Amino acid sequence: MPKDFDFFYDLGSPYSFLASTQLAGIEQRTGARARLLPITLGGLRKATGHQIPPPQQLKYMSEDIARWAAEYGVKMQIPNAFPVSTIQGLRACIAADREGMGAQAMHALFRVYWGQGEDVSDPAVIGRALTQAGLDGKALVAAAASQEIKDALRRNTDLALSRGVFGVPTLFVGERSFWGNDRLRFAEAELRRQQ
User: Fold this and answer.
1) pLDDT in tens, 136-148
2) Domain span at residue 94?
3) Computed from CA positions of residues 153, 156, 162, 165, in that sequence, does the dihedral angle turn out positive or negative?
């Protein structure tokens, strides 16, 4: 039985946000734990040659994420500042994970960006959101600037590329990958199959 599964995400991905709201349920139903792996979607796109989606796809995406948010019963909006650089927030998530608080940091930053529409590229917003989640926001924002944390984010992105990740969210159950919020049930079925 798999004890964990990998969840590659970027805070700037609306589908990563949606999928993140379902992780606790998957964990509860399967007994497996999500290993959270923040990566830079920009770095992934650059390495794989994918471009930013065209306006037609962005229009469809805004309608589609509204459907998924209603399906999951979660509050969601397209932030005023979209897209933005999520690198500092992702680094703060890695710093929090080193203290065993990665899930709290991820959820806090997803909530402030996709739930409240605030600019998650702003260190003050990052720090405040983390503090409101019961973390030391100031210390985590400071840690996000360290070379060690910068290197860790780069390693996560390199790991994703080496495993064939081309978009987020991507879940791995063992070596089987499941890309997209709409593939969560298949990932959960694979977790059950391996029990």
Assistant:
1) 999 999 999 999 9
2) 4-193
3) negative
